[in-house]
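=== Discrete structure encoding ===
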Amino acid sequence: MVSWIIANWAQVAETLAAVVGVASLIVKMTPTLKDDNFLLPIIKFIGKFIALDKYGPAAVNRPN
């Protein structure tokens, strides 16, 4: 199982991002804050994970 996840990491990450994105849309469309509070820790965790690349793609030295 671990070898499959490693071999297909791009698809796994893409699927997780899509699931969280759809869940975020659903949460924003509902009027109560109960579901917002459920998804908030997940969104914060993903935000920190993505923010690890603080320099972005512009910092990569690319040959001209």
About this structure: Residues 41 and 47 are 10 Å apart (CA to CA). The chain has one domain: 2-52.
